[in-house]
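Hi support team,

I've been running sequence recovery on a batch of backbones for a student project. Most finish fine, but this one hangs at about 90% for roughly twenty minutes before it completes. I'm not sure whether the input is malformed or the queue is just slow. I've pasted the structure tokens below so you can try to reproduce it. Let me know if you need the job ID as well.

Thanks,
M.K.
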């Protein structure tokens, strides 16, 4: 090697050494670890306060939701801890949902449908509380900074799968004064935004009308649809009632069974729903025949990933009785792995 080449090589080695930052002193490393734990602890406190605020505070908000396909909806949200929740659509018009903590009512003007079923508010609170189970290692919670939503200061909390796990993540923008979440964003593992919901305005302790949380009378010409579903809390409970259930032999870490729902109709449907605090995973078994839309999306195949317009991505396959859909925001290979383990 020439002296010039040797000199250049030594110079590059020296520059490379200079580019590497010196190791932090052990005391500073410990301080950073303590700070990280403190921030994680504060993030837990903020999320716990958020869950409590959802059920304890009366408010009215103008809410916007943007889906993964770009479809935008806008609605008024009224929440009273004693009376329930009311969601009235602005864009598109004509959809009203009222849940008075006993029954839920959905009025859809365009479809002329009046649907009545069991209240879902207890389930919503339960799902929010799942986000606090990060200590089990399936999820991680981080405090990411501050922001302003609807003119109000908020803390941003990031909840994502633990090390080595795949799945969607969520950010919550939590109001500093009240603890209410003013924005929620869900992202796929590849970074795509799956949904983004935020408040344009927030009014605390508003004056509600006497009938805001009362079910409206059945409009003329509307079809009344009653809840024809039966729900079970465990596989054992469903099996004792004679329900035949397909279930996967493998699920990603952190998912636990929430409910089993059996819908009695011309084509019976059984749905298993799991959650991990961030997202849900559903296995739906339906009797034949498969809808023509799914047949077209499968393009003649017996199984595969399908993405219906304005629908959820799923792995779909034929069975001896009909077909199954595994619906969730997990990577395609994980959906297929779970589907392949279903018996």
């Amino acid at each position: 090697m020439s002296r010039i080449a040797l000199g250049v090589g030594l110079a590059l080695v020296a520059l490379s050494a200079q580019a590497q930052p010196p190791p932090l002193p052990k005391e500073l490393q410990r301080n950073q670890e303590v700070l990280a734990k403190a921030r994680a602890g504060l993030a837990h406190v903020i999320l716990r306060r958020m869950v409590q605020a959802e059920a304890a505070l009366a408010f009215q908000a103008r809410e916007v939701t943007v889906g993964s396909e770009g479809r935008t909806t806008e609605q008024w949200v009224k929440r009273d801890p004693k009376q329930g929740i009311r969601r009235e659509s602005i864009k598109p018009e004509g959809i009203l949902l009222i849940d008075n903590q006993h029954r839920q009512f959905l009025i859809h003007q365009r479809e002329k449908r009046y649907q009545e079923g069991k209240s879902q508010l207890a389930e919503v609170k339960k799902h929010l509380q799942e986000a606090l189970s990060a200590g089990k290692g399936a999820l991680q919670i981080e405090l990411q900074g501050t922001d302003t939503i609807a003119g109000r200061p908020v803390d941003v909390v990031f909840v994502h799968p633990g090390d080595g796990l795949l799945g969607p993540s969520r950010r919550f923008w939590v109001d500093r004064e009240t603890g209410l979440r003013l924005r929620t964003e869900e992202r796929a593992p590849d970074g795509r935004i799956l949904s983004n919901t935020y408040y344009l305005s927030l009014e605390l302790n508003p004056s509600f009308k006497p009938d805001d949380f009362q079910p409206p009378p059945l409009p003329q010409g509307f079809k009344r649809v009653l809840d024809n579903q039966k729900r079970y809390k465990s596989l054992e409970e469903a099996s004792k009632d004679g329900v035949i259930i397909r279930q996967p032999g493998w699920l990603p870490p952190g998912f636990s069974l929430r409910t089993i729902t059996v819908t009695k109709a011309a084509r019976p449907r059984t749905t298993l729903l799991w959650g991990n605090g961030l997202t849900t995973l559903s296995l739906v078994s339906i009797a034949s025949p498969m809808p023509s839309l799914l047949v077209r999306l499968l393009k003649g195949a017996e199984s595969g990933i399908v993405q219906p317009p304005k629908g959820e991505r799923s792995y779909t396959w034929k069975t001896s009785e009909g077909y199954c859909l595994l619906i969730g925001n997990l990577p395609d290979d994980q959906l297929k792995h779970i589907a392949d383990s279903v018996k």
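--
Follow-up from support: It reproduced on our side and the slowdown came from queue contention, not your input. The chain is about 25% helix and 40% strand. No action needed from you.
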